[in-house]
Amino acid sequence: MQTNNSLSLANPHPPQLNWAQKLSLALGALGGLILLVAIAAPSDLNMQSWLWPSLGLLTASGLLYTYFTYKDKPAGIKNDGNFFSSLSHRGVVGWVLGIIITGFYVLLYYFESYLGFNENGANTGLVQMFDPLSMFLKGKAASQWFVYGVLYTVAILVMGVKFIVKYRHNKYQVLRTISVMFFQLAFAFLIPEILEGLNSDKAYFAKDMKNMWPLNYYFFEDWHLDNMLSGGGLGMFMLVLGIAMIFIISPILTYFYGKRWYCSWVCGCGGLAETAGDPFRHLSSKKLIAWKIERWMIYAVLAIIIFVTGMVLYTYFTGQAQILFLNTYTLRSAYGFWIGAAFSGVIGVGFYPILGSRVWCRFGCPMAAILGLQQRFFSRFRITTNGGQCISCGNCSTYCEMGIDVRWYAQRGQNIVRASCVGCGICSAVCPRGVLRLENGPVNEDRFGEPKPIIIGRDEVGILS
Ligand code: SF4
Ligand code: SF4
């Protein structure tokens, strides 16, 4: 019989995968392998019939893994072994996954022909594999963005199911996850693709009804404004909706609910971070220096996009592209290359296993910056803390994906009113003492709560005799 001589109070042995979990992951690896073969296959090899087997294997893998992981566990959050796992704690598996995702994003943004996209002829390879589905939904061949949309949506749906099962005891998490799954499937994928097919005679304009400037940084670019203006009823609708989202709908919703209405319930970037990114949320740095860097970076990106958009609108209304030594077309393509693609895509998702799941939302997203400013100064949202109950375990800080040191506030019984908080509610969900509550209340000074000294409960103080 094996004996355990460790004196550790925690289980010293990292949990091992059982055979059923391994088999489930093997199915997923097979599905991923089909996608890789499609990328590497010779251009005359047609792999269209492999689309559904590949997506089926990936989906079955996620669902079976979820079933075998949680079937015997009672409801309640299990983050067992997170800091022992090679995947979730920057081990070899994590690094390899990070490199694969980053590599895929680099191909997607900068070398789409390697994925098989052919603007002037028939697609090959991976993109060709998705042609039948694209033909069905919008009546034309796939692009690399269609491939990306399908894989992105499948990832959110499958990992969303896993997230719901893991957090099934918490109604807020279940509803929030159903919401991001719905908005991704319907508003970001199906509806835009179908509308694209129904309006194929019109030039392209964004049809994702929840995507607004400045996250959609090209909204005010001349070609996009022109395409919406000449896009008939739908084009006008998207133009009016886009402007209403920025100036009316978003401020009202943020006033009532904080930035969580968008960042944790609607946004596709947040949707992926919350579902597929869940195993990596504890990797966000909680250091003070990270908070300082975060504030400099996110507001710098906001200032840049406001400046670039101002220049772009100047060109639109005056027809002049050159302002002193600056060319507005060069500026907008530089923003698209470095921030729209490299930062939000390649680093934002590729670095999940290294820097945590909200790198883009925390350090770069100008939409999050605007919503955050409003949340901080003019919103009813706050997280209240019952400091007397806090046992300083630090679970809340550990699992805050935005790197907020929640415990620091909880120990002092102070409300958390931070611009960066996306209202995911995980800090509250993982707290063993029910200290944290996400609330909406009046906008007044009480919202911030008075800074108090660290609270020590009566039971923690004893007299030595
Ligand atoms: S403070 Fe809590 S609700 Fe806010 S981002 Fe962090 S974990 Fe989510
Ligand atoms: S998880 Fe709860 S008990 Fe633990 S430090 Fe945070 S507020 Fe305190």
Question: How is this structure best described in words?
Answer:
- By secondary structure, this protein is mostly helical.
- Among the domains are: 138 residues, no CATH class; 79 residues, Alpha-Beta Plaits, CATH 3.30.70.20.
- The strands form two sheets. A two-stranded antiparallel ribbon has the order 1-2. A two-stranded antiparallel ribbon has the order 3-4.
- Strand 1 and strand 2 form a beta hairpin.
- Helix 1 packs antiparallel against helix 2, helix 2 packs parallel to helix 6 and helix 12 runs antiparallel to helix 13.
- It is globular and about 65 Å long.
- The protein starts with 18 loop residues before the first helix and ends in a 25-residue tail after the last strand.
- The relative contact order is 0.09.
- The mean pLDDT is 91.
- The structure holds iron/sulfur cluster (2 copies).
- The site of one iron/sulfur cluster has 15 residues, from helix 17 and helix 18.
- The site of one iron/sulfur cluster (SF4) has 15 residues, from helix 17 and helix 18.
